[in-house]
UniProtKB/TrEMBL annotation:
<keyword id="KW-0560">Oxidoreductase</keyword>
<dbReference type="InterPro" id="IPR036772">
    <property type="entry name" value="SRCR-like_dom_sf"/>
</dbReference>
<feature type="domain" description="SRCR">
    <location>
        <begin position="1"/>
        <end position="99"/>
    </location>
</feature>
<keyword id="KW-0479">Metal-binding</keyword>
<feature type="disulfide bond">
    <location>
        <begin position="456"/>
        <end position="466"/>
    </location>
</feature>
<feature type="domain" description="SRCR">
    <location>
        <begin position="131"/>
        <end position="243"/>
    </location>
</feature>
<keyword id="KW-0186">Copper</keyword>
<keyword id="KW-1015">Disulfide bond</keyword>
<feature type="domain" description="SRCR">
    <location>
        <begin position="274"/>
        <end position="371"/>
    </location>
</feature>
<dbReference type="InterPro" id="IPR001190">
    <property type="entry name" value="SRCR"/>
</dbReference>
<dbReference type="Pfam" id="PF01186">
    <property type="entry name" value="Lysyl_oxidase"/>
</dbReference>
<dbReference type="Pfam" id="PF00530">
    <property type="entry name" value="SRCR"/>
</dbReference>
<dbReference type="InterPro" id="IPR050912">
    <property type="entry name" value="LOX-like_protein"/>
</dbReference>
<protein>
    <recommendedName>
        <fullName>protein-lysine 6-oxidase</fullName>
        <ecNumber>1.4.3.13</ecNumber>
    </recommendedName>
</protein>
<dbReference type="InterPro" id="IPR001695">
    <property type="entry name" value="Lysyl_oxidase"/>
</dbReference>
<keyword id="KW-0964">Secreted</keyword>
<feature type="disulfide bond">
    <location>
        <begin position="67"/>
        <end position="77"/>
    </location>
</feature>
């Protein structure tokens, strides 16, 4: 408060419904780090004593806490005094100057629902199995499914059992839903508790009464016990056996003779499919439904926690932890459906109607965070981040054979980083650092790589599911072959505008004399160049080329801006275009036979990223033509458009015979930049190319974004399929198998 900038001022903290200050007694820079992280900054630069920015009002809440500096919240520090216990006065209010750098993913949106988050997260439940039943109570996925239901008392800072007096099936449904399970099973209570001295149980709740529609036991009628923790008439505690949803049990596989790896997806009811997009963690994201073979979003009209409960349970999770309106996880793509029915346990397709009115647009897309089961730590291959500026970044350390050590950075990929952030529950990878020269090892870890050859596909939930070649030697190019990552709750999500693509496809004859820039950038096939030189700078200006031209518009439908991986100092200047290009491979253009063998490809060397079209409240922030290359990227809610009139917006099909083909566009093909979903980066069109008596005809139809099955198949297939042809004329930096 009252500082000259947003990251500097008097520290104030909200407690017990009132804002108060912090005393400067025994304050330190380490304690400043903690308060700055609570405010969303990476750390503190310095602190000031004696009310540098004026005296505050109200109570002085905190006096002389002891922090080591790595904590994310002052509540995790050691306290000498209780809240409000102090001998200070307001002339001793402390101030701090925080680093202006924000923690990735932290923004003011988090403050919108802060109170709701606190209310839901404060009422905690868990299942506590008896020791002799513990092995049978933990599923193969690593979470506890059965045991005594316990409630955490904030008053005593202790777990207590729940009294079974008046307990009902509706109560069990709500409790299991809050714990991340879609339902519950009845089982032998007497057999489970036989030999247990139940009369010695201490209880924290009794007389719980739910109607089954609640998302949290907090909203049910109940009595919270104070001092008398034996006040349970039956002396029987609640014992539950929760049932995991279809996300964890009814797994189906997609296999194909061309696909070596296996993909999994939750089974969906007939007639309707539901998915969550752009969420940072499992069970969170924008709600999308498929109706009549088309994916769309859901309008916020009629949206409630009851509706969100339906979605979460259908997807195989528990109840909804939070239900959001107004595009909390970014604007969607395609049609908007609504309203949502809440009367069925599974969504009924008849409850949907396509909304075309202005009151339902992508600025009103609904989203949800579902309750998911808490995964117990596995015995091997636990991971952690250490010595970063905040909890979502740092050196990656893995535990093997009860020892902690680093992960080798040789051939480390974005797919590996995706799995690491997902396993940690930190969302998406913002970036990963190879050959890490900072972020030292933890005190209890070995300063060497103990895990080598990690190869993930990107859809795993735990690195134990990835391929590991432990025999590989580490440190081929560096003396510090370690990995660091920065995770982020929010990330971009690119998707191709298939309508513009299909409308713009056409054939164009041009002489090479009109394509000088394109020839210099290798955007023509081999026969455009003089064969006696075998060098791309010697092109024949009198040859005619047949070009399959098209426009591409790439929308960012994620929750963060899409930024190029390369630093500004590594951008390439293109004299023909008069501006810098920040990405060598942003989109691949390929023409293939129907059997997926490649017959021609585009050779667009590199790209300049900017905002050309924006929707809703989004505004243009990135422009290539500014001095020094501009500020390049694609803002959330905006699109980068390359019209067919631009150089290299084509595939040279001069040597391609007439026939039926597939056109494939693949955005961010090397996964160099983090996204929430890579399987929607592909657009596919059917092409019929005819040449009758010198008359060229092109028919383009069925341009679409493949669903997850087809997208995964296409991605894997084109990566592993052998490309038959000469390896000449590729743009710099491109590779082909």
């Amino acid at each position: 408060m009252d500082g000259p900038t947003g990251n500097e001022g008097r520290i104030e903290i909200f407690h017990d419904g009132e804002w108060g200050t912090v005393c400067d007694d025994s304050f330190s820079t380490e304690l400043g780090h903690v308060f700055c992280r609570m405010a969303g900054y990476t750390g503190a630069i310095r602190y000031h004593h004696s009310a540098r920015y004026g005296r505050g009002d109200g109570p002085i809440w905190i006096d002389e806490p002891s922090c080591i500096g790595s904590e994310m919240n002052v509540m995790n520090c050691t306290w000498t005094n209780k809240w409000g216990e102090t001998d200070c006065e307001h002339h001793e209010d402390v101030s701090v100057e925080c680093s202006p750098e924000r923690i990735p993913g932290w923004d003011m949106l988090k403050l919108k629902n802060a109170q709701a988050v606190l209310e839901n997260d404060d009422f905690k439940l868990r299942l506590k199995p008896l020791f002799r039943h513990r092995r049978n109570s933990i599923s193969e996925k690593g979470f506890i499914t059965a045991g005594f239901l316990e409630h955490f008392s904030k008053r005593d800072n202790k777990w207590y059992r729940v009294c079974a007096d008046g307990w009902s099936h509706a109560n069990s449904r709500v409790a299991c839903g809050q714990l991340g399970f879609s339902s519950f099973n009845e089982f032998d209570y007497g057999g489970y508790t036989r030999g247990e001295r139940l009369r010695r149980s201490q209880f924290g709740l009794k007389d719980v009464t739910c109607d089954g529609s609640e998302n949290n036991l907090q909203w049910c009628e109940k009595i919270e016990l104070g001092q008398n923790h034996r006040d349970c008439t039956s002396h029987q505690p609640v014992v539950l056996q929760c049932k995991p949803g279809r996300h964890y049990t009814d797994r189906i596989t997609l296999t194909d003779q061309h696909v070596d790896n296996m993909f999994t997806r939750s089974r969906q009811p007939e007639g309707l499919r539901v998915r969550l997009k752009s969420g940072g963690n499992l069970g969170s994201g924008r709600v999308e439904v498929m109706i009549n073979s088309e994916w769309g979003t859901v309008c916020h009209n009629g949206w409630s926690v009851l509706s969100a409960n339906v979605v979460c349970r259908q997807l195989g999770f528990g109840t909804a932890k939070h239900a959001f309106s107004n595009s909390e996880f970014g604007n969607g793509h395609g049609p908007v459906f609504g309203p949502m029915s809440t009367t069925e346990l599974d969504i009924n397709i008849s409850a949907y109607q396509l909304r075309m009115r202005e009151s339902c647009n992508h600025g009103h897309d609904v989203s949800v965070i579902c309750n998911t089961p808490k995964i117990e730590e596995k015995a091997e291959l636990n991971i952690r981040l250490v010595n970063g500026r905040h909890m979502r970044e740092g050196r990656v350390e893995v535990q093997m054979n009860r020892k902690w050590g680093a992960i080798c950075s040789d051939d480390f990929s974005m797919a590996n980083a995706i799995v690491l952030c997902r396993q940690l529950g930190f969302g998406h990878p913002h970036q990963f650092i190879q050959d890490l020269a900072y972020w030292a090892a933890a005190d209890d870890a070995e300063d060497r790589a103990i895990l080598t050859g990690l190869k993930c596909k990107g859809d795993e939930y735990h690195i134990e599911e990835c391929e590991i070649s432990s025999s590989e030697r580490c440190g081929k190019k560096s003396k510090t072959p370690f990995v660091g990552i920065v995770c982020n709750e929010r990330s971009a999500d690119l998707i191709v505008d298939t309508v513009l693509l299909e409308q713009s496809l056409h054939i164009n004859r041009r002489s090479t004399g009109q394509l000088q820039c394109a020839a210099e950038e290798n955007c023509l096939s081999d026969t455009a160049y003089l064969p006696e030189y075998h060098q791309t700078q010697y092109w024949d200006p009198y040859r005619e080329r047949m070009l399959l031209r098209f426009s591409t518009r790439v929308w960012n439908r994620g929750t963060a801006d899409f930024l190029p991986k390369s630093a500004r100092t590594n951008w390439d200047w293109h004299a023909c275009h008069g501006h810098y290009h920040s990405m060598e491979r942003f989109i691949d253009y390929d023409l293939m036979h129907l059997n997926r063998t490649k017959v021609a490809q585009g050779h667009k060397a590199s790209f300049c990223l900017e905002d050309n079209d924006c929707e809703g409240e989004a505004s243009r922030r990135y422009d290539c033509d500014n001095v020094g290359g501009g500020n390049q990227g694609i803002s959330m809610g905006c699109a980068d458009t390359y019209l067919y009139t631009l150089d290299c917006q084509w595939i040279d099909i001069t040597d391609v015979p007439p026939g039926e083909y597939l056109l494939r566009l693949h955005v961010n093909p090397e996964m160099n930049v983090s996204e929430t979903d890579y399987y929607n980066n592909i657009a596919v069109c059917n092409i019929i190319y005819e040449n009758s008596a010198g008359q060229l005809r092109l028919y383009a139809f069925n341009c679409h974004i493949p669903d997850d099955y087809e997208g995964r198949y296409i991605t894997q297939f084109y990566t592993e399929r052998a490309f038959v042809g000469r390896r000449t004329g590729y743009a710099r930096g491109e590779t082909r198998t």
